Amino acid sequence: MFLAIVLPTVKIGLTPAKTPEQLSTIMQVLLLLTVLSVAPALLLMITSFTRLVVVFSILRHALGTQQTPPNQVLISLALFLTFFIMMPTFKKAYYNGLQPYLNHQISESELFKRIEEPFKEFMLKNTREKDLALFIKLSGEPKPKTPEDVSFFTLIPAFMISELKTAFEIGFLLYIPFLIIDVVVSSVLISLGVLMLPPMMISLPIKLLLFVLVDGWNLLVLSLVKSFH
Q: Exposure string (b/e) for 102-117, b if CB count within 10 Å is 16 or more?
């Protein structure tokens, strides 16, 4: 004797809201879906992720290891370091904004304002004045009298180009010792008359050995974390 299995059905549709409360709930769901869809972009724009992933990518090119470590490993490392660095900011946003909102103590507009404040504070500390002045000028906004008067959407691109410049500065410093090794190995091979042997075959293990001996990952991560104010 076989038991009949009843499969559930799922129906998706739009029905008119009968009360203002239903409309408010629908708008909150749509807003939540919108926030979730742009969450990856927000992670890139207003956190430390950009600087970390660019530096790790430059390091891989400086070592000359092609696809090692893989992109998934570098992005995962940058992602977890981002959560580590941004944890105080996340805590401020949660306790000052999200928790009171969930307890029905503040409105939606006050929620976004309180969540914005800790992220704006973090970005202002890591944004160069020159970059911020550039986007204030391009936007045509009046010159802000206090840091709190800076528009959030003006601050985001200024913060991003500041992060890119800082990442390239760190990457340049990373490149110098490995570049010296490549030059020395190439010069030695040319002086010995070994022209058929690619210098990369000799310099790559030397660079890897040097990076391991100085505990490169430890020093790099320590420097990156301390580079954020």
A: eeeebeeeebeebbeb
